[in-house]
Write a structure and sequence with these properties.
Layout: E1 4-7, E2 10-13, H1 14-36, H2 42-65, H3 69-73, H4 78-83, H5 98-116, H6 120-138, H7 140-145, E3 159-160, E4 175-176, H8 179-200, H9 209-225, E5 234-235, E6 238-239, H10 240-259, H11 273-294, E7 305-306, E8 309-310, E9 313-314, E10 318-319, H12 325-336
Antiparallel strand pairs: 1-2, 3-4, 5-6, 7-10, 8-9
Helix pairs in contact: 1-2, 1-6, 2-5, 5-6, 6-8, 6-9, 8-9, 9-10
Amino acid sequence: MPIGIPVFGHTITFYGILISLGALLAAYLASNQAKKHNQDPEIVWDIFLWVMIAGVVGARLWHVFTPPPSMVEQGVTTSWYFTNPLEILKVWRGGLGIPGAIIGGGLALYLYTRIKKLNFGMWADFAAPGVALAQAIGRWGNFFNQEVYGKPSTLPWAITIDPQYRLPGYNTIETYHPLFLYESIWNLMNMGLLLYLGKRYEKWLKNGDIFLIFLMIYSLGRFLLEFLRLDASQVGGINFNQTIVAIVGLVSAGLFVLRHSKHAGIFGKKTTAAERIARRKAEAEKIAGAKEKVAPVAKPGPKRTTTVKAAGTTVKPIVKKTVKPATRSVAKSTKTK
């Protein structure tokens, strides 16, 4: 199976193409969400590059610090990466951890909103459905790289893995669970549910709730799918990714419940739906006002005057903007003379 498209002696991998496509569609969806809530969609594109870079860096570092057992057996460990730092840059070969991408991209978004004095929770809500979409698309890069497959399977939708991509001990087994496909479908469902909840319960949800729901749903799916994974990253003898997503999912669920309970005051002042909508409108007006201040305003020039002479006399200067009918008759009679 080809892994990319040859261009001038180099290969543009499908893995990289799909990740880039997913990121662009995520930004487009986020900008649409911002526009629907009376926010400036250009903000999404202003921060897009920074979130993209931070997400890739975070995803790569997550892989570097949690390499799967099959790579560890080959000597590709965290210390090996630091001994060969250029290998860290070769992201097109695979090795990106989604939890790290969410952390990196989320951190970039947080810093941007802090600097621009925007509401982080609101913009995280706008981004969440797009992130789920990007994950669903990016997972198909694993298909072309023949990675992120599950346990051996004879199901009709099982996929065939070429011998050179099979894990040690599975050299004679051809078909496996398409784990990347399961996660892609789960993420598409996540995106659809987030969009539905955001629209259906807009007046009840608080800023940041959609992002918390995203974390809960993603964590649940990833936790369950890790049971099918053959090459799960191990730290201290435990499945590291599965443990982390379990913690993230439980914490997110706890925060969501507390934010809507009678004890929500512990985490900040409770607000009504009307107050939240008014706040969003105020932020939109604030951004629009800032743009108007930046736009150059033409300064009024000196008023032009006209002096009309008639029969040796001088008529007083007349401002063209306030010319009176009597003045025009004088000018006409002078011209006639």
